[in-house]
Design brief:
Helix content is 47%, strand content 13%. The chain has 354 residues and is of the alpha/beta class. It has one domain: Alpha-Beta Barrel (TIM Barrel). A 7-stranded parallel beta sheet has the order 1-4-5-8-9-10-11. Strands 2-3 form a two-stranded antiparallel sheet. It is globular, with a radius of gyration of 19 Å. 51% of the residues are buried. The protein binds coproporphyrinogen III. This is Uroporphyrinogen decarboxylase. Pathway: Porphyrin-containing compound metabolism; protoporphyrin-IX biosynthesis; coproporphyrinogen-III from 5-aminolevulinate: step 4/4. It catalyses: uroporphyrinogen III + 4 H(+) = coproporphyrinogen III + 4 CO2.
Amino acid sequence: MTKLKNDTFLRALLRQPTEYTPVWMMRQAGRYLPEYRRTRSRAGDFLGLCKNPDLATEATLQPLARFPLDAAILFSDILTIPDAMGLGLYFSTGEGPKFKRPLHDEKEIYDLVVPDLVHLRYVMDAVSQIRKALNNEVPLIGFAGSPFTLACYMVEGRSSSDFIRVKTMLYQRPELLHHILDVNARAVTVYLNAQIEAGAQAVMIFDSWGGALSHAAYHEFSLAYTKQIVEGLKHEHDGAKVPCIVFTKGGGLWLESIAASGCEAIGLDWTVDIGEARRRVGDKVALQGNLDPAVLFSNPDTIHAEVGKVLHSYGSGSGHVFNLGHGISQFTKPENAAAMVAAVHELSRQYHSN
Ligand SMILES: Cc1c2[nH]c(c1CCC(=O)O)Cc1[nH]c(c(CCC(=O)O)c1C)Cc1[nH]c(c(CCC(=O)O)c1C)Cc1[nH]c(c(C)c1CCC(=O)O)C2
C-alpha cells in the first residue's frame, strides 16, 4: 500500500476525520489556464492532447502547480469510450464534440460492442505516468461518463440542448436504447477498473445529462446503468479503498436513490442546498460540491463569502469535498480560482475539531 502525503480527499470521501475540507475543481485543467492553451497547441488539438500521455500528464499537473489542490484528475474526456467503439470522435473549434458515425439505425446499434482496451491503452498509460509524476503528493481521480450521458452524444452525434433523437428513441424504441446502455455500462466498468489497476485512487462517473430525464426515465435509463457499474467496480486496490463519486447534473431530486446505488459520494450541482442534501443522505454517503461556477466571475471578497456559505451550510464534521457545481468556465480568471481554494482551506478548519 502506497502512503499518500495528503490523503484528505480520500478520507473525506470515506467520511473519516480530516483537519480541513479538501478541494478540487471539475475541469481544473483547461482553457482558463494560459499554460493549458500552450500545451494544447503543442498537441495540435484537444483529442491529440488526450491521446499523448506525456502531454496529458503535463496538463493534469498544471492546476496543481498553481493551486494547493487536494486531488488531481486524469486529463482525458468521457468520449474516449465511444471513440474506441469506432464512432469517429472529433472536436471542431468552438462547437464541442462530434461523431462522424453516430448511432442512427438498428444495425449500427446491434453491432455495437464493448471496445478492446488496446484502443484505450493511451488512457492507462497516462494514468500510470501521472501517478509517477504526482509522487504520492495527492490522490489521482479517474473518471468516465455515465451510460446515459455517453448515449446522448452517441445518438445525437454532437452536443444537444433538447436531446430529441435520444429521447425519441427512449419513448419509441426503448429496447434499442437499453441495448446501447447495456453495452456502455459494461464498457465503462471495464474501463474504470483498468484505470484503477493503472493507479486511479478514486473514480467519478459524470452523468451530465441524466437531469434532462423525467423521474421515471431517470431511474430506468440512467441510474439503473450507473448502479450496474458501481456494483462491478473494484472497491479496493493496492490495499486501499477506491471510493466512487456519482455526479448527476440536475439530480437534486433523486439524492436518496443515487445514495442507494452503492457509491461512496454524490456530486452536487449548485441548485441544491448542501446542508439539506446532507440531512437527506449524509448518513450514507459523502457529498462533493457545490459552489456555482459563476461565483468565480466575481471578486475575491465575494468568493470568500460564497465559499463560507457552502461550508456553513454543510456544517461540522467530515464527509464534504469542496468543488464547483459543474466545470470551471474557460472565462474564469485563474486568480479567482486561487481565491476559492484559499478560502476553502482557511474557512473550513473551524468545522473540523480534531
Ligand atoms: C459532457 C462531458 C464531456 N467531457 C466531460 C464531460 C462531463 C463533465 C461535464 O458535464 O462537463 C468530462 C471531462 N472533460 C475534460 C475533463 C478533464 C479533467 C478535469 O480537469 O476535470 C473531464 C472530467 C477535459 C475537457 N473536455 C473538453 C475540454 C475543452 C477542449 C479544448 O481544450 O478546447 C476539456 C479541457 C471538451 C469537451 N468534452 C465534452 C464536451 C461537451 C466538450 C466541449 C465543452 C466545452 O467546449 O467546454 C464532453
